[in-house]
Amino acid sequence: TLTLLFLQEHGLDFQRLLDASAYKESFRQDMIRWGEEKRRADPGFFCRAAVEGALHPVWVVSDTRRLSDVEWFRDVYGDVVQTVRVVATEETRKRRNWVFVTGVDDAESECGLDQGVAFDWVITNDGDELALDEQLETLLQSLHRSL
Asked: Can you list the pairs that 18-23 forms with residues at least 24 positions away whose Cβ atoms lie under 8 Å?
C-alpha cells in the first residue's frame, strides 16, 4: 500500500518499484520518510487504505511494518485477526541477494515488528519447499476452521 500510494503521489513506475532493482533502492529512503510523515499525521492511514473496498471473508494484508499497524487491525477487527510472521535466516536472505544497508534495514520500517508482537503464526521460509508447504497448509486449515 505504501509503495502504491507513494508512486501515485510521486508519478513513479509501479512495476520497477516492486522488484529489488536499483530503481527501487534509489527511492527507498524517500519512501520511508514519506511513510513516516503520513503515519505521524495519521497512524491508521495505510491500514485503512489496505482494507478499503475489501469484501472477501478473509483478507491477507501483507507487509505490515510497525506495531501500530498490528494494533490498528486488532483494535478494529478484534479476535478474528491472525498475525503471521515469515522468517528466513540471514544466510538465506543473503543467498537471495539481500544486502544490509545501514539507515534503511535497521529503521523501524524494516524491523518495527522484531519485538513487541506475539505472532499467531511464524512461518520459516529458508528454501525448503516441502517444509514451507506443510506450514502453509496448517495455517490454511486453521483459517478454514475459523470461517
From this structure: 20/97
What single-letter amino acid sits at 98? W
Read off the amino acid at residue 37: E
Model pTM greater than 0.85?
no
pLDDT in tens, the chain (147 residues): 555 665 566 565 556 656 655 656 666 777 778 778 888 899 898 888 888 888 887 888 887 888 889 999 999 999 899 999 999 999 999 999 988 988 888 888 788 898 888 999 999 999 999 999 999 999 999 999 988
Domain residues of the chain, as ranges? 1-59, 82-146
| Maximal CA-CA distance, the chain | 44
Cell of 91: 544466510
